[in-house]
Amino acid sequence: xxxxxxxxxxxxxxxxxxxxxxxxxFTRPSEPVPVAKIEPARIIDVRxxxxxxxxxxxxxxxVKAKIGTRHLxxxxxxxxxxxxxxxxxxxxxEGDTLVVTLPPEIVEVYESTDPGAYKVIDRWxxxxxxxxxxxxxxENEIKRQVVEAWRDSIYSRGYVRRARTEAVKNLEAMLRPxxxxxxxxxxxxxxx
Amino acid sequence: MKIMTRFQACKSRFGRGLPILFSLLxxxxxxxxxxxxxxxSVKAEPVxxxxxxxxxxxxxxxxxxxxxxxxxxxLKFDEAKGSRQQLNAVLNWFKIGTRKGAYSYNTYLRAxxxxxxxxxxxxxxxxxxxxxxxxxxxxxxxxIGRDVQLREDHYRVTGLRTQINLEERAxxxxxxxxxxxxxxxxxxxFKERLKASAKGKAVAxxxxxxxxxxxxxxxxxxx
Lengths: 192, 223
Hints:
The structure holds 2 protein chains of 2 kinds.
Chain A: H1 2-27, E1 37-38, E2 42-67, E3 70-85, E4 90-94, E5 97-101, E6 105-111, E7 118-125, H2 136-156, H3 159-175, E8 183-187
Parallel strand pairs in A: 5-8
Antiparallel strand pairs in A: 2-3, 3-6, 3-7, 4-5
Chain B: H1 2-14, H2 17-34, E1 42-44, E2 52-72, H3 82-94, E3 99-114, E4 123-126, E5 131-136, E6 140-146, E7 151-157, H4 166-186, H5 189-212, E8 216-221
Parallel strand pairs in B: 5-8
Antiparallel strand pairs in B: 2-3, 3-6, 3-7, 4-5
């Protein structure tokens, strides 16, 4: 009888200690589980250049795609720059005027480095009980198409034309102080 | 006999509804597997855009490519920090199979001078001595962007483990991006190397330009 009582109290005490232990263990400060092991950043290359950037574009683009019966809806923030390689400019003197030909534009498209630049909103499969995941290769192909479409839209919406106009104005202003008492004329041979 | 009795009891409880329900479920399963096989091609739908467009006047003098790599793997107990991570490591021990993935992408940083800050008085030309003194504005740095695509360098998911999905990859890229930005801010080496490259290029370019027009160049760049 006495042994049973002691056993009962001992069990109760162990249970209480276990509960308190669990509460303390789970509530003590702890770092969240990391999403991945991230390696330190590495410099791949540093490229010196002389480019005149006249237009920057920043846009949130919806990503809507399907592969077979699988669908994906996401949102992506893209940044685009339109610049001109000044090391490729052709220049010649026509009397007292320095004539410079604007080189072809360089359109570069990247994903923004702002937080949340790419977010998956929804994905599903038309087939019941079938998976809706996309492999990295499929996702990359979708993104490649989105970027291509966006790059085309930069031309179709007239941003390149605007960039060239701005570049003509900016380049003229940049070069004028270097040729005192002379004129500077920028030629834009582009058809776009 | 016993089975038959149970089936009959079940049948009497649900009446004719049970076979119909089973038939419907069976038909749905078949239908899901027998839908017409569509062409497995990637098709991104065209969309309308409304962009934020900004006119700039930047002379870009250098660009840097920075690579970032991360791997998805089960957390080991000896690597775990704190109770939450330790619990996760213990749970991982019970999971059957392997789940590993390695991902990388590049981020681009550039150094430039804002030509709007270049005043007419910043270029002094001595036509007698044939000397051009150029005072260039401060060289600044900024992120251009990162690769749209995430390279999958390794992928191995076996046993009863779940595949690495889109959302997880997006979270990993986000974490890599935050880590990279922190590193670039904290480790001066990134910006210093980029600025040094930009400075060298600016001096070389403007010297060549001045000499091309018959002047000797003296260039200084504001810090």
